Amino acid sequence: REDVDCVFLALPHGVAAEFAVPCRKAGKVVIDLSADFRVYDPEVYADFYGAAHPAPELLPDAVYGLPELHRDAIKTAGLIASPGCYPTSIILGLAPALSAGLIDSTTIVANSISGATGAGRKADASLIFPEIDENLRAYGVPKHRHLSEIEQELSLLAKHNVTISFIPHLAPLARGIQTSITAILKGEVDAEQAQQAYADFFAGEPFVLLHGQDSLPATRNVVRTNRIEIAVRVDPRTSRLLVFSVEDNLGKGAATQAVQAMNLRFDFPETEGLPL
Amino acid sequence: REDVDCVFLALPHGVAAEFAVPCRKAGKVVIDLSADFRVYDPEVYADFYGAAHPAPELLPDAVYGLPELHRDAIKTAGLIASPGCYPTSIILGLAPALSAGLIDSTTIVANSISGATGAGRKADASLIFPEIDENLRAYGVPKHRHLSEIEQELSLLAKHNVTISFIPHLAPLARGIQTSITAILKGEVDAEQAQQAYADFFAGEPFVLLHGQDSLPATRNVVRTNRIEIAVRVDPRTSRLLVFSVEDNLGKGAATQAVQAMNLRFDFPETEGLPL
Amino acid sequence: REDVDCVFLALPHGVAAEFAVPCRKAGKVVIDLSADFRVYDPEVYADFYGAAHPAPELLPDAVYGLPELHRDAIKTAGLIASPGCYPTSIILGLAPALSAGLIDSTTIVANSISGATGAGRKADASLIFPEIDENLRAYGVPKHRHLSEIEQELSLLAKHNVTISFIPHLAPLARGIQTSITAILKGEVDAEQAQQAYADFFAGEPFVLLHGQDSLPATRNVVRTNRIEIAVRVDPRTSRLLVFSVEDNLGKGAATQAVQAMNLRFDFPETEGLPL
Amino acid sequence: REDVDCVFLALPHGVAAEFAVPCRKAGKVVIDLSADFRVYDPEVYADFYGAAHPAPELLPDAVYGLPELHRDAIKTAGLIASPGCYPTSIILGLAPALSAGLIDSTTIVANSISGATGAGRKADASLIFPEIDENLRAYGVPKHRHLSEIEQELSLLAKHNVTISFIPHLAPLARGIQTSITAILKGEVDAEQAQQAYADFFAGEPFVLLHGQDSLPATRNVVRTNRIEIAVRVDPRTSRLLVFSVEDNLGKGAATQAVQAMNLRFDFPETEGLPL
What we know:
Oligomer: homotetramer
Largest interface: A-B, 45 and 45 residues
Strand content of chain A: 15-25%
Strand order of the largest sheet of chain A: 6-7-5-8-11-10-9
Order of helices and strands of chain A: EHEHEHEHEHEHEEHEEEH
Structural class of chain A: alpha/beta
Helix content of chain A: 25-40%
Number of strands of chain A: 11
Radius of gyration of chain A: 18 Å
Mean pLDDT of chain A: 96
Largest sheet of chain A: 7 strands, mixed
Shape of chain A: globular
Low-confidence stretches of chain A: none
């Protein structure tokens, strides 16, 4: 349709690219919620997704759609690859520490716990209520597909290759993802310095709420919002930085983050229509 | 009462010691489910529990009641300090790796997710249904009290001082605890070697179910049992060992583990009365 | 304080009246969320609450704060007795049928299922997560206190004394109440006539969503709103009317309903500040 | 296979009959958990299931497999039609009242709340965790298929045709069904008489636990058992009998009830292998 400026794609990876090609040819801005255009290097995509990239010719157009990292690029992008819940919670959790050089990037361990909406809405016997209720389990280790985009963005922040451990877990709730990250500090860093680095990095960000040293984030406070809440701690016993983040996997972890990108792309106020 | 041979104490720490003293004086075997006699060093106790040890004179009598590590000592102990859910899941998860020297003990990170029964049964506004339902949060960082006993036992296994990162989380289920552990491997270790080390360590253990390389444990399978299920993986990308364990926080993580110790102490078959 | 026009009381019954007296003396409009002023007859109050009414002198001032029934009286009331979740769901569910004379009022049976927030936020061992999770039970039968106000309002609608059966149940969710009502029809009434009677009664009501004959309400759709959703069916096999209603027990069943009454009382638009 | 004496069928209705025919021809005892042989009258089956009965020639062989009602017939039956969770909870809840003539059978209203396992284990988008979690809804009104077998059995008990109102609900738990029943009393009946009628009817039943006048059943106490718990009350305000029953929809409501029937049929002790 000619009067459409922007197309949102909420499709499985592989399928999304098929739809993106004609949309881009017709000059539409595409905001894609699949993984197809999040990884800039098609070889990394092939390694993690087990198939050749379905539309590598579009990759030069694509911007990783995390506003807190790529706000300017999003404003002019033809194709915005909007990130999902695990990457958002881990990348934003580590961005201040890596860009300030606080941590040894070879020691990063991220553990995430996700509610069931993170798996999408599909008729799958492993997703029915009695399978998830009253149950906890890790899955997708040690090489979860999302590591490809997570390590790409962390490497850009650190300005060198970063490889991390990531363990996702499934818990019996519908909406909400909680991530806990540890990494060994480079040299002496105290709680105040760590807190300041995070406060500086996120200054002015409308959708990032940074906790102080006296509280930790809980998922219930971010449900149905586009907010990510983050807390940072220093553990002197182990010389480690601890980072905690929570978000709604259907909010900042998916749908509303894509709307935030659209607002940027089309010069709306960034918070337009989005629950703070 | 004269005809009682064995007393179980399920009391808050501090209070438990008050009851243990007269019981021991009367010659009873005491199985204590509090933290009072789990830490052998009263200074470590004071550091983590913020008060002088309430009955240090009983400590020489006490054995850490984890049958898989201290079976012989339990058989003759006067005071058995039965461990709780977090320590059991972490210590048993790491015991094979540390005793076989597979990992660099300075790089251990343990993340645990617990159901609500882990907090005990008390009238507390933070434990009511609407506070826990549909919510995920980390808490008790960076120096959870149970680290005192965890690091004591890990140090005994490693034969040197071990300090670890431990992050507990609360999730909306009643019973079940899931622990994920990562540590950097010392030298080349492949999946087969790691699996073998764990199989050797737990050979013949009636209450440890070791998964193979094709499945990961889920809490639902251990509810209402005294079983701990463990899986081990090698991540070649990050040269890390990954360990996963699950148990029922009221079973192997508390009540039935204490019964297992009693069986040992009084020469009953170790599995007597306990659900496999 | 002199510059306050309106006081909300969210206190236990008995206590609320103590605070209402001085507020009324000072000329404030009181919106009370307790049961103290919902029952106009102090003898009925004494029968159901087991104590003499704490402030009968205020009863002539009081209006039962259900806007769909008493909108005009609320606009000038000194004391608005805002109803809770069970009464709202049952009274609004039956109001069209009783005022249109569709049913035999001696045959009314109401079954309600409530989430845990219906019990309020208090440190009570019967409300902790493991007591409510994975559990269903009826309670408070056969003479639940709220029957006093429910039967008062139903009697006003029917223009004769109405006595009903009411069975409340507790289910493992935080927010949401679902009510199912049956009653034997007076004479021949078909689905279309029943639907029309309900549509007529609720015409123009901003917070009542009446389902058609092809869907039934579900609590999840009303969480965090001031909406009540209602469906009506005719069962020709048993000559009964069936009514279904859902609401958020903290929304239309409590807090936002009180705000709706305040809007009416102070000439704000009725929907001001309230989520539709 | 020649050495098989008994075949359990856990298949959808319609399909079960296809398998039952050859099994019966080969002389096997069939215990069928579908609805195919629960309704003795093929016309009623056609009315409720929308298709001609798939094997009416087997109906004379079939016994409704509720041991508390048909114990002797089950002992010699060729085909045992094992009932599901809703019918078991309602029929056993009403059996003492109907056989003692306590209630007016035209006034029976049954409301049931079921956990998600009641819907079976299938990949269905309406059964995934986020659809059931934090939600309550009624469904299947006014003519749920199970009414055909419920009314058949109630009519046998009452010795006249009985038609009832039945409203099933779905709640966010995995296992457990709770049923609340009301009916108007015939003449004067007090609590003691009602309690006695229920105690007499269920005397000696190994899997029925009758509560006294001071407690109501909760589903959590019957999970993973073959027990049904029942309580009875008299409401003098409305001259109604109230009955409450709970069971595990996979236990007494399905699998273990079928085993109870097999025990009877093959002269094992009735409680063999079944959790009390």
